[in-house]
Write a structure and sequence with these properties.
This protein has helices at residues 2-28, 33-61, 63-81, 87-115, 121-129, 131-149, 152-162, 169-176, 181-188, 197-202, 210-231, 234-241, 246-273, 276-296, 301-316, 322-327, 332-350, 352-360, 366-385. By secondary structure, the chain is mostly helical. The two termini are 32 Å apart.
Length: 404
């Protein structure tokens, strides 16, 4: 849990750095909001392939080994982003960063799902998922501190350079974290070597897994699209639409992130208490209404600050149930591949939403653009959920591979 929580927290730190430097890049490089949206989207799009590949490789070579490689990858390319001199260079580096970003979740979520007993899987994997709020909060603190102490032209680069820090976690993981027993048992039986990594990549896109795969991918698309539509653009919304200072923007975001952390924890317990699907549905419907109200209603800055925490709570509650839900849908042989594909393809398609918000905001107010695409995303999630089963209580060891 410590290894996966640390990896996910630092993953969030590295990825969320960009959302805080968007206003600076708009000024320094003179890029448009559409271009900024593309920089946010490219990382998430490429993460789909990274997560899919990492899932297949983790089924073949082990969850822990792939986890270590992915942490080193995303940390290294986050660091290199700090040296970018123009839009094109940053675009390429952000794309390469995305390979590791998508891969880390795939390896870590499967690892946690396989070592925790069925009864506690929801809360344990959900607790690890709360690391996203920890890393996001660390990015907000860095943003507030660095931009207060350094000129903007230097501060944004330093934020990316600090993104190298997660690499140190690899040494701890290598020393203390072992492969799950269920994976070692399948390896010992020879099942892990039954298919090539290339074949493994596509196995979840064929019957009997295909129907489940596309439904889950659509559900994740809605969840990720709604959260990205807000989170990528929220710092810019607060600074340009609400005209808040750097310090006040950081304060609002910290309150929002604190609410998100409590949402992760609540979702973790609810996933075991009332089931995965009910947790998803409560969060999706609440998020759709909350985001629209937050960015479109004529509320005061004080009210906006007070509502920031409940908004974060309801949006991020859904993510705690995703890891255990997908773990319980696929057998061990293809679990990494299935989770990696569904989560990261959903994340890649959801990644289109920040870019769409950026382009639409050139014609409409930014808050209106966020509201339109967030509401559409959560609507898609609800539709997909209606087609999916409840999985609470399933034993991962009893999920039989296709043909057995």
């Amino acid at each position: 849990m410590i290894g996966c929580l640390g990896g996910w927290s630092l993953d969030a730190l590295d990825v969320q750095i960009f959302s805080f430097v968007i206003p600076t890049l708009l000024t320094l490089w003179g890029i448009s909001r559409g271009d900024a949206g593309l920089l946010g989207t490219v990382t998430l799009l490429v993460s789909a392939f990274g997560g899919w590949l990492a899932g297949a490789l983790s089924d073949r070579y082990g969850r822990v080994r792939v986890l270590q490689i992915t942490i080193l990858w995303y940390a290294g390319f986050t660091f290199l982003c700090g040296f970018a001199q123009d839009f094109n260079q940053l675009f390429i580096l952000r794309a390469l960063q995305g390979l590791g970003f998508g891969a880390e979740w795939s390896a870590g979520a499967v690892l946690m799902g396989e070592v925790i007993r069925d009864r506690y899987r929801g809360r344990a994997v959900g607790f690890v998922q709360s690391g996203w709020a920890i890393g996001w909060g660390a990015a907000a603190l860095l943003y507030t501190g660095l931009f207060a102490m350094l000129p903007e032209v230097q501060a944004w680069r330093v934020m990316f350079w600090i993104g190298l820090a997660p690499a140190a976690l690899v040494f701890w993981v290598r020393r203390h974290v072992e492969e799950p027993d269920v994976f070692k048992a399948r390896q010992a039986s020879g099942a892990a070597a039954a298919t090539s990594p290339l074949t493994q990549l596509f196995i979840v896109l064929k019957p009997p897994y295909l129907t489940t795969t596309w439904k889950v991918a659509l559900m994740v698309t809605g969840a990720q699209g709604g959260s990205y539509a807000l989170s990528v653009w929220l710092p810019t919304f607060l600074r340009t639409e609400r005209h808040l200072s750097v310090l006040n923007t950081g304060s609002y975001l910290l309150v929002h992130i604190l609410g998100a952390w409590f949402g992760f924890i609540a979702g973790a317990y609810l996933a075991d208490a009332i089931g995965r699907k009910r947790t998803f549905m409560i969060s999706a419907l609440g998020a759709a209404l909350s985001v629209v109200a937050y960015v479109t209603l004529p509320i005061s800055d004080t009210v906006m600050l007070l509502l920031a925490a409940p908004l974060g709570f309801i949006i991020y509650m859904m993510f705690s149930a995703m890891g255990p839900f997908m773990t319980e849908l696929y057998p061990t042989e293809v679990r990494g591949t299935g989770q990696g594909f569904c989560y990261n393809v959903g994340r890649a398609l959801g990644a289109l939403f920040p870019a769409l918000v950026g382009f639409l905001s050139q014609r409409l107010p930014l808050g209106t653009a966020i509201a339109i695409f967030a509401f559409a995303a959560y609507g898609l999630m609800v539709l997909a959920l209606l087609l999916l089963p409840e999985t609470r209580g399933r034993s991962v060891a009893d999920i039989a591979p296709a043909g057995e």
